[in-house]
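Because showing beats explaining, we let one protein speak, sequence and backbone structure tokens together, and leave readers to judge.
___
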Amino acid sequence: QVELVESGGGLVRAGGSLTLSCEASGNIYTINAMGWYRQAPGKQRELVARITSGGSTDYEDSVKGRFTISRDRGWNTVYLQMSSLKPEDTAVYYCNVVGYLSGDLVPRAFDSWGQGSQVTVSS
């Protein structure tokens, strides 16, 4: 009932920049938080950055100062601006959105994931 569409992944040289975007659509009553996770080969999925409805942000230590998470005014699109990229940033990046669905007497919670975007940083 909630669809997330990601875009912006690709191949970039070390030191370069990329911006990921994720647009949410569907029966959304409210969004509590939007975030980006990543999973490198052979590793567990980890939180990269998250932004709450109040505007608070959290970043994984290795990306602080290099990545910036933001959202649009309509609160249905989240962006991840990545700069000074390193080979160790290579991973599949997933958008995650949590909130509540509309349409029911009592809103139901949802936790949705995007399809994943490959980011490859060459040395």
Remarks:
- The longest strand covers residues 28-39.
- The mean pLDDT is 95.
